[in-house]
Structure formats: structure tokens, C-alpha cells
Hints:
The protein is mainly α. The protein has helices spanning 10-14, 20-65, 75-100, 105-125, 130-146. It has a domain at 71-132.
Amino acid sequence: MMTNNEYTSSIEYYGNPREPEDVMTMLQRLAQEFEEDTEAYLDQEEDEEEMSQWYEFDAYQDFTDSTAIYPPEKGLEYTALGLASEAGEFAGKVKKAIRDNQFDLDAMAAELGDVLWYVAQAAAALDVHLSDVAQMNVEKLKSRKERNTLGGSGDER
């Protein structure tokens, strides 16, 4: 142990000084760690933003429950038929836009709203959160994009 009267050089007390290459390596390592920490923080922030988007799907699905009037024991059948019907109405609006050269954005958006309602209720009939359906679809599309298989056909591409 040192006493007040003893002198110790910085080399002895702090150890051997690092070589300049070691300092550069350390700075590069610290910069890399900082970049990784920043990426992790941004990923976490992005995940939280993504989570809030998923929450809105579930809030919408919960709302649709308050407007659902059909026999609960026939929920899947009812919503599947309603979904097909509303998708057909949307397709009819698009067809008429082509034929008549008149584009009715409000009418098309209203039909898509009906399609969305039936999708939410169909998911509920399957006891699935709408957010899970959306998230699974996003992951599937990301995977297909990464593998360059967005085009083509088949569920397992």
C-alpha cells in the first residue's frame, strides 16, 4: 500500500500504457458498440410503434363486436358469406367505374369498410385477434420480399 510520502509513476500505478494501435482498436470497438446500441434502441422504438398499430386493430375488432347482430353459433359461416358478399360489392363498384368511366371513391371506401368489418368478425369467430392476423400477414410478406417470391402463386412460396 502506498503512503503519502511514496511516489508511484503513472506507468506503475495504472499499468502499462497502451500502444497507439490498441487505442484505435478500442475506439473502433466502442464505435461499433455504440452503433449496435443505437440500432437496438431504434429497433425497440420501431417495435413499440408497431405494437401501437397492432393495438388499433384489436380496438377496432372490439368495436365491431358491439355492432354484430347474427347468431353466435353461426359466426364463421355468417361472416364468411358476408365477407364474400361485401368483396363482391366492392368489385362491382370497380367494374362500374371501368364501364362508366366514373370513379366513386367514397362508395368504394364504404364497401372496403364493410369488408374490414367482416374480416374483423371472421377473426373473432375463429377466436383470433385481428392484430395477430395483420402481424402474421406482415411477416409473411416480409419473408416473401426477402426471398424475392412476392410474385407467383401458392401459399407456401
